[in-house]
């Protein structure tokens, strides 16, 4: 039997690449720093049995048409799958998988890096030193806000949201959350999280951390109106998907002091960043590093490859998304 033809749209960590080799007819796109151009993606997908994609590749009817009838599985190297038209794949019998769980703790850690950066002005302080700005210890210098005794508001209390909540307890915070579906009472009790309606969470939280998927309902969930409801001392952190936050409205809220600070790992038009944010000291900007640890990216890569080959072998992949 010939080996299945597979397109991998971006090189994975070495261990994951090794686990691919010798098991398929591999077509690897190696053109960073840019994502594979759309026309090249369409051309190279033709005749493939498997696509191993990352979050920048839009998997839609056009790509599925270009791939043709041999396509069995799209294995996404991410927990988020808003880049994939799942309904379209399902209607054509194409399997879709993601890489949940293995990145939960790493992403929660990075959310906390941004919480601390925002509340304690960490990146701003680093910039002050590096730019050689004169300073002397001063009781009024670069004051942030305490976390102890404050409220963390988690928006989307799934795996990552709960891992972020767990860390908050160690900082002496209490946790409130909102989600499309309220958690069962025993889960709330065990996680020590309290349900709030959306507007109440905005008004009460000192730190708001976003962990909801990007859907038509969550696009621009954080808009000018949401910022108006938040405390002037509040910090917003987004490690989920960029378009959940209206970046221009966020820049305005940060500039006018409507909220205190923000930390972003993801962007509305990634990798572009809204110009108005770049000159603000009260926002920390990271290049989508949520899952970027050696351990986690290795686990994600191996899981994506495992899903891919399970699907190609006609088995049910561990992380199947199709209903
Ligand atoms: C994901 O997995 O969805 C992240 O955004 C990338 O690790």
Summary, kept brief:
InterPro entries: D-isomer_2-hydroxyacid_DH, D-isomer_2_OHA_DH_cat_dom, D-isomer_DH_CS, D-isomer_DH_CS1, D-isomer_DH_NAD-bd, NAD(P)-bd_dom_sf. The protein is of the alpha/beta class and 323 residues long.
Explain how this protein is built.
- It is built from 13 helices and twelve strands.
- The chain is an alpha/beta fold and 323 residues long.
- The chain has two domains: 5-101 and 294-312, 3-Layer(aba) Sandwich (Rossmann fold), CATH 3.40.50.720; 104-285, Rossmann fold, CATH 3.40.50.720.
- Strands 8-7-6-9-10-11-12 form a seven-stranded parallel beta sheet, sandwiched between helices. It has a five-stranded parallel beta sheet with strand order 2-1-3-4-5.
- Helix 1 (14-20) packs parallel to helix 13 (294-312).
- The longest helix has 19 residues, at 294-312.
- It is globular and about 75 Å long.
- The mean pLDDT is 97.
- The chain binds (2R)-2,3-dihydroxypropanoic acid.
- (2R)-2,3-dihydroxypropanoic acid binds next to loops.
Return the domain count: 2
According to CATH, the homologous superfamily of the largest domain is NAD(P)-binding Rossmann-like Domain
Largest sheet composition: 7 strands, parallel
Number of strands: 12
**Count of helical stretches:** 13
How much is the average pLDDT? 97
Alpha carbon gyration radius: 21 Å
Binned strand content = 5-15%
Uncertain regions spanning at least 5 consecutive residues: none
At CATH level 2, the architecture of the largest domain is 3-Layer(aba) Sandwich
Which ligands does the model contain, each kind named once? (2R)-2,3-dihydroxypropanoic acid
Compressed to H and E, one letter per element, the order equals EHEHEHEHEHHEHEHEHEHEHEHEH
- Give the terminus-to-terminus CA distance: 30 Å
Strand order of the largest sheet: 8-7-6-9-10-11-12
Structural class: alpha/beta
* Oligomer classification: single chain
CATH topology of the largest domain: Rossmann fold
Query: What form results from the Cα inertia axes?
Result: globular
The CATH class label of the largest domain is Alpha Beta
Instruction: Indicate the percent of residues in helices.
Output: 25-40%
Pfam families: 2-Hacid_dh, 2-Hacid_dh_C
Family: Belongs to the D-isomer specific 2-hydroxyacid dehydrogenase family.
Protein name: Glyoxylate reductase
Keywords: NAD, Oxidoreductase
